[in-house]
Amino acid sequence: MKTGVAILGSTGSIGKSTLRVLARHADRFRVVALTAHNSADELGAQARETGAGFARSVNQSGAECLVEAATHPDAQIVVNAVVGAAGLPATLAALRAGKRVALANKETLVMAGELVMCAAREGQGELIPVDSEHSAVLQCVTGHTRALKRLILTASGGPFRDWPVERLARATVDEALKHPTWRMGRKITVDSATLANKALEVIEAHYLFGLGYESVEVVVHPQSIVHAFVEFADGSVLAQLSFPNMELPILYALTHPERLADTGVTRFDPVAAGPFTFEPVRAADFPALALGVGAGRAGGTAPAVFNAANEVAVQAFLDRRITFGRIPGVIDKALQAHRVESAQSIEAVLEADRWARKRAEAACS
Ligand code: NDP
Ligand code: MG
Question: For residue 315, which ligand has an atom nearest its CA?
């Protein structure tokens, strides 16, 4: 019996990578459901190619099609590759239905970490990260989870890693979209340039691996080959290495804890790949990281506010309504004005999300 896979956001960067991985492993998996936002033509072509019986786009079928695909009876695995808060109801529904969720849509876990972990426990669903750093951690800790002490996530540093701070403020959209090591969708590429992405990932790691914020660190590694370090109680440190290509963590999320032979991966050569360098984060020049980690530490609805304000600020920057340098300020204003509430109900999370979007929109005008 082949394992059925639903892909939410199949027309995006991670969605397409997932389809490539599944095409190489068609003996094990079959695509049963696909969704897009606007790209209906491309979605139709993907459905014809894969034979998926369910293919809907949100702009034609409404947002409910995400939940329908996520709970499709023939899907054992749901790859959530939607960008932003829109992916939350589908993640919750899939976990409650007992599916394995291969999660690229990190915003889901940041805005509603407690609810998502609770849905996984209740429905006996499995939450497996696709994000390369978290896949690296999972690969290192599988079999050793109890002795886990500290995580160090790597960050490429983005396109502005060595830019002087004055120049950063005026960085253009085209400059922000030129990521040095990864080819990704526009939103996460801007998040990588501000380091908001790394804040989302610290929060993501906190929920996935159950560590306090003091035990999740970030180091800049411009080559993007070491994806994370994991320190154990005895002081030993493991790391996972691979060339920057999301197909490896996607396949691992489908097969964990097993590994499948894969022809799609470039053979690792340490001499060609090196030298590897590591440097501290320029925290003062990239304030979005500290803002996000601060929101994570504050807990409750604060991470949802951070996420929503960041989504609004990034869109405003992409629309050329605000400068790059204003992104952290917009997030900070929303966080400063927010009164943190408990985030144990979906209503509270969605209300915080709506409130923060309004606040951030006002700060962008
Ligand atoms: P893209 O922008 O390339 O793709 C986003 C996908 O989601 C598209 O299929 C898009 O449809 C769909 N979509 C967008 N908005 C909505 C919405 N409101 N409702 C439903 N569907 C929507 O993004 P990426 O593939 O780069 O990223 C996807 C997620 O994975 C993000 O959360 C990102 O942070 C995460 N991630 C990405 C990595 C990467 O390498 N790209 C690495 C690690 C994590 P349409 O094409 O019709 O617009
Ligand atoms: Mg990542």
Answer: 1
Q: How many CA atoms lie within 13 A of 248 on its CB side?
A: 19
Output the CA 9–ligand 1 centroid distance in Å.
Answer: 6
In percent, the amount of the chain with pLDDT more than 90 equals: 97
Tokens in use for 280?
A: 């501290």
What are the structure tokens assigned to 84, written together? 């932003």
Q: Whose CA is nearest to atom 2 of ligand 1?
A: 185
Class (C level, CATH) for 3-129: alpha beta
Strand order in 77-80's β-sheet?
Answer: 54-57, 29-36, 3-8, 77-80, 100-103, 126-129
Distance CA 80, CA 35 (A): 10
Ligand 1: nearest atom to the Cα of 197: 34
Q: Is the pLDDT of residue 207 over 90?
A: yes
Ligand with minimal distance to 65 CA: 1
Mean local confidence (pLDDT), 314-339: 98
CATH (one of 1.10.1740.10, 3.40.50.410, 1.10.10.10, 1.10.10.60) for 138-222+279-364: 1.10.1740.10
Measured CA to CA in angstroms, residue 293 lies from 146, 172, 228 at distances of 24, 26, 18
Residue with tokens 């992409």: 318
Alpha-carbon distance 179 to 307, whole Å?
21
Radius of gyration (C-alpha) of the chain in whole angstroms: 19
**Ligand 1 close to Cβ of residue 39 (< 6 A):** yes
Decide whether any atom of ligand 1 lies within 6 Å of the 227 Cβ.
no
Q: Specify whether the CB–CB gap between 196 and 289 falls below 8 A.
A: yes
In the chain, domain spans:
3-129, 138-222+279-364
pLDDT at residue 282, as a whole number: 98
Give the per-residue pLDDT at 144: 79
| Structure confidence at residue 264 (pLDDT) | 87
Q: Write down the pLDDT at residue 265.
A: 87
